[in-house]
Known about the structure:
This protein is an alpha+beta fold and 200 residues long. It contains 3 helices and 11 strands.
Amino acid sequence: MTYPTDKKYPITQDYGITDTTKLRGEEIYSFFDKKHPGIDIALPIGTPVYACLGGIVVSLEYHRGMGKVLRIRTGNLLHIYAHLDSFNKDFGDSVKEGELIARSGNTICWTVPHLHFEIRDLSVWEVKERPFKPEFKEGLPVQYKKEFEYVCNHNEAIIDLAIKYYGKEEGKKNILENNPFLKEVHSHKSLEIGTKVLII
């Protein structure tokens, strides 16, 4: 897994329990048991940001807590790049490890300009337990799985899962290929809670 910048800028907040989470855990990090779910890397605005792993761009959004955010899925892993200034990729784009994906910014930044980088294991049921400490070393993280099973737990249709995991509506083709039992289900009809969907 490659570092998201061309050189190692200072880390201003590490993963887990930090001085900041001790002070503002209830306010900002309560969703993650008062832990910082990623790392913050101090970057000048406009610094190139690179994909840590190859994958599919599944989300470009303006988040009320993280500003401009780009998310990439690699198998069961979701890597998140936040507080960005601009995007160099679009929904559903395939990216390679080390490829330019964005420029750093200061959108909804709580402190100095920085990149918030986070990686989550989507095969873990509890959302608060999905983030793990990133290790930038050769190869894929030990948590990586080429495929994983998603269990529908609320009002979701095939089209929702296509966008969520493939970044665009055309992703429904992948879902139907990998889940033949869904081929007779209308793509906009809510799936029953408990339906297991294989994501590759």
